[in-house]
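FIELD: query
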Amino acid sequence: MSSHREAPEIAKDPVADSTDLYAFVSPDDRRTVTLIANYIPLQNPAGGPNFYEFGDDVLYEIHIDNDGDARADVTYQFRFTTHLRNRDTFLYNTGPIDSLNSPNWNRFQTYTVTRVEHGRETVLGRNLMCPPCNIGPLSTPDYTRLAREAVHPLGDRRRVFAGQRAEGFYVDLGSIFDLADLRPFQSLQVFAKAQGLPDQPGVNATKELNVHSIALRVPIDELTRNGWAGRDVDDPRAVIGVWTTASRRASRIIEHGKGEDCESGPFVQVSRLGNPLVNEVLIPMSRKDEWNALPPSDDKRFASYVAKPELAGLLPVLYPGVFPNLAALDASGKPRTDLLAILLTGIPKGVVPGFQNFTGSTEADMLRLNVAIPPARHPNILGLIGGDPAGFPNGRRVFDDVVTVELRAIAGLTYALVDPSYHPDAAAGEITDGLDNHSPGTPYLHHFPYLGVPYDGYHHPAS
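FIELD: result
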C-alpha cells in the first residue's frame, strides 16, 4: 500500500495513520496548488454504528519546504473537535441528514485551519464543518450535495475540505506482498505458459473502500520562496517539497472506571508521509517506527536503503533469467543514484530534457513539485516515465499509477538516466501489478477535492 499500515506501531493507530499524499498544480486553476493528505486506511463503508472520523487528539499537518533544507517553511495545521447533540441515543443520526446543520445528525465534527510561517500563526478558518460519512440512501440521500457544502472558501482562491472520500489509491496488495508474485507478470513466465495458466489481471485490494481526506487548495505564491510565481521550469524557486505528519501528545492517562482518557505534554510525531511506498517497501521492519518519528531532514540515515533496495535484489531471484542486467547491477554494489534522485533529492536539470524538480543535496523523502509545469491536457497515469512531466514523481496526482512507476524504477528502468551505458532488462519496462485508474472502484472528480464520492454502507458488498 502507498502508506497503509506501513509500520508496526502506526498500524495500531489508524486515526493517525497517513495513507497517501498528493500535491499537484490544480487542473482547473493553474495559479494554485492542491495538497491532499489521506488518513484512516481501509474503511469499510458499512462501518456503523461508530462511523469513521478524525482524531480530536491528533494534530494533522501538511508541510512545505521551499529552500531545499528539508525543514518546513510553511505548515498548515488541522485540529478537529467532535460534537454530540443527543447523549441518549446510540445512533450516529436519528433521521435523514439533508444538510450540514441537520438536527438529525447526532455526532459531527468541526475543524480549524491554521497557517504557520516562520513561527507566525494565522488562522484561516474556524468551526468549519466536516461532512458526515456516507451511510446509505435513507440516512444520506444526497451525499454529493452534503460534500459540496463541506467545501469551504478561505479567501484568496483558497479552498478546504476535510472528510470522507472514496479511496483513490489502487494496488494489487495480495500479489505484491506474496513475494512480488505479480499476476500479469507471473503469467508471462515459462512455467506458467507450460502449465497452460491464463493471463491473470491484477486484483484491486482497495476497491470500494474509503479514506478520510484533508484537501487544501492554495495560491502558488503562498508556498514558494519569496512568493515566486513565475513560469521558468528551470528556476530553483519553482520547486517545493511536501510531506504530511500526524502527532499526538507525549503523555496519555486513562481514567479508571470512566472509559475516558486525557493527554498532556508537547506533540510528538507518530506518522509521516512524502513519496509513496518509501516506508512501506524500502525501510526495514526494525526501523519503520523510527522513520515515522523523524523529520525528512534526518533521512540521510536511511539513504542506504534507497541506494540498495532490497526488492531490486529479490526480483532476479523471484523471476530467474528475467532480470540479468538488474542482477549484475545489484551485484556490482553501485549505488542506485537514480532512485536517490527520484526519492531523496529530486531530479537535477539536464537529466530529463525540459524537466527538473531538484531541491538540493539534502537527502529527504518529500514529494517534489515543480509548480511552473502546467497541468497536462492529456495526462498519462505513468507520469514522467510516460512522457507526462506534470505527473509523479513531479508531485503526485490522485490517479497516477505510482505502484507501476516505482516497480519499474526499482527494476532498473530509470538507471540508464544516470548511466547511459546501462541497458535495462526488457521486463523492466513491462512490469506492472496489472491495475490502472480505469479499474472499477477508483472514481475521481474533475474539480476540488478531486477524490470521488465515498461508497455508502447500504450498497457495499460487505453489508
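FIELD: remark
The radius of gyration is 22 Å.
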